[in-house]
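lol ok so funny story. i was supposed to be doing the assay writeup but got distracted and ended up predicting the structure for this chain instead. priorities right. anyway since i did it might as well share w the group, maybe its usefull for someone
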Amino acid sequence: MTLKEKIAAGQIYTDLDSPELAAEHLRCLEVLYDFNQSRPAEVTKRKKLLQQILGHCPEDFWIEPPLRCSYGYNTFIGEHFYANYNLIIIDDVKVEIGEHVLIAPNVVITTSGHPIHPELRLNGGQFSRPINIGNHVWIGANAIILPGIQIGENSVIGAGSVVTKNVPPNVVAAGNPCRILRPISDGCIPI
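and the output, tada:
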């Protein structure tokens, strides 16, 4: 089994000794450096840079620099996407983000973590699980989305939340750990 197959299967792995992954990571960092250092009016340049590394980059999107990713090619963004400053996507495996998604400043989306048992963490042991964020989701400032999470369409994740469990569609969820506060209905007052 190759390292990439091991990663995709959700097994514990270490990528510290992989020249292939190190080169792919460096390529992503180089492109992100140019993106993050671009001038505010260089809109076309910014889009072209992200199209070089992201798995899917739509026509209509906006990401405020700085942006950080592990590889880029595992991140798939839907149309009409907006991310504010300091978005971090640890995309060791697939991150799917739907259409009309809004992400506030300082959000972390991480597909990877480390095992609890110390022997499994020796030599950098880690695991990765894909993340899926549905259409029309709003993620508040300083939220953290952990490995393997699915957020259902139309849901809102409150500022400062740590999402440790899946969030169903059409709810407002917040907290550490994140929990469902209420359903979203036509009579909801905006928060």
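Residues 108 and 144 are 5 Å apart (CA to CA). The first helix runs from residue 3 to 8.
back to the writeup now i swear
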